[in-house]
Amino acid sequence: MAQDVHAIIGASGQLGTEMALSLKSAGESVVLLDLRSPSFEGIQDLPFETVDVCDAALLSTILADHGATRVYHLAAALSARGEQDPQWAWELNMKGLLNLLDWAAESKLARIFWPSSIAVFGPGSGRVAAQTGYRLPKTVYGISKNAGEHWCAWYRRNRGVDVRSVRYPGLIGTLAPPGGGTTDYAVEVFDYLSSGEPYPCFIAEDERLPMMHMDDAVRAALELMSAPREPLQCEEAYNIQALSFSPRELFAEIEKQVPGFQYRCIPDFRQDIASGWPDALDDAAAQKEWGWRPQVDLTGLVTSMIKARMNKPNPVTAP
Ligand code: AKB
């Protein structure tokens, strides 16, 4: 059987960089697509194509030319940045997805991974959000992810596209910085550790949110993409749960490993976004249907972030 060709759209981003590295280390054939060329040297030798996902013709040509059979569509405007330019965020998040789903429906060869987010939830979804339940997203990003889930289900039912999805929590990774998200504080803090300055956190001290180490996030995508189709009954993106913590709880764990670490919380507009999200997700369906289990706990996350980022500033992009 021919080897899969993995195409990563948004490959220079936070998740894309680590996904590319993981696939490369596993000896897989990978092609990277983005507007910006990859800045992390571990993946700079992989084939790279410059593309705007909103350009349907160019996207289709590139995917077809490379014979892509597994496509990970990771390019998106996140929650905080999206609120500052709603039309742009909607256009990027929806048009990119629909262009890819159309291509997949035509090509009939590719399996698609498209991440949804905890941002589909809003006030009324409960502190532990159910897999299928009330959703009234507060941000343009959340609205686009919610609509995207419905589009994926539509293409699955009506056009036979094998598209798979999870609702990611805040992702915390060691390589490329995130940008424009509400949960980015949990990455940004590690770049302050060597400065000696108190970290100015933009989220309230006791705001608990679902979070996940990037190793678990990449593994979730790859495991879901390799799972047999039959047991996957969920029409929506799967809830996946790993960690839940507040700034206070994260910073207490950092303080154990970096004595003297200080912070102050000065919540801004991102706190309003965070306050509409749940503390945790009920991920029983993901556990049952494709065997999802997180592996990295809070201590492991903090240890790996300190090792990778302390003294190596790689600043988060402001929203
Ligand atoms: C964001 O904060 O916007 C993202 C997300 C939770 O999807 N990290």
Q: In words, what does this structure look like?
A:
The chain has 319 residues and is an alpha/beta fold. It is built from eleven helices and 16 strands. It has helices at residues 14-25, 56-65, 79-84, 86-107, 140-159, 185-188, 214-226, 247-257, 269-274, 284-290, 298-309; strands spanning 5-9, 29-34, 48-50, 70-73, 111-113, 116-117, 128-129, 162-164, 166-168, 170-172, 199-201, 209-213, 238-239, 243-245, 263-265, 280-281. The strands form five sheets. The protein has a six-stranded parallel beta sheet with strand order 3-2-1-4-5-8, sandwiched between helices. A three-stranded parallel beta sheet has the order 6-9-13. Strand 1, helix 1 (14-25) and strand 2 (29-34) form a beta-alpha-beta unit. Helix 2 (56-65) packs across helix 4 (86-107) and helix 8 packs across helix 11. The chain is globular. The model has no long low-confidence stretch (mean pLDDT 95). 2-amino-3-ketobutyric acid is lined by residues 78-79, 117-119, 141, 168, 170, 181-183. 2-amino-3-ketobutyric acid binds at residues 78-79, 117-119, 141, 168, 170, 181-183.
Strand-helix topology:
Blueprint: E1 5-9, H1 14-25, E2 29-34, E3 48-50, H2 56-65, E4 70-73, H3 79-84, H4 86-107, E5 111-113, E6 116-117, E7 128-129, H5 140-159, E8 162-164, E9 166-168, E10 170-172, H6 185-188, E11 199-201, E12 209-213, H7 214-226, E13 238-239, E14 243-245, H8 247-257, E15 263-265, H9 269-274, E16 280-281, H10 284-290, H11 298-309
Parallel strand pairs: 1-2, 1-4, 2-3, 4-5, 5-8, 6-9, 7-16, 9-13, 10-12, 11-15
Antiparallel strand pairs: 12-14
Helix pairs in contact: 1-7, 2-4, 4-5, 8-11
Bound molecules: 2-amino-3-ketobutyric acid.
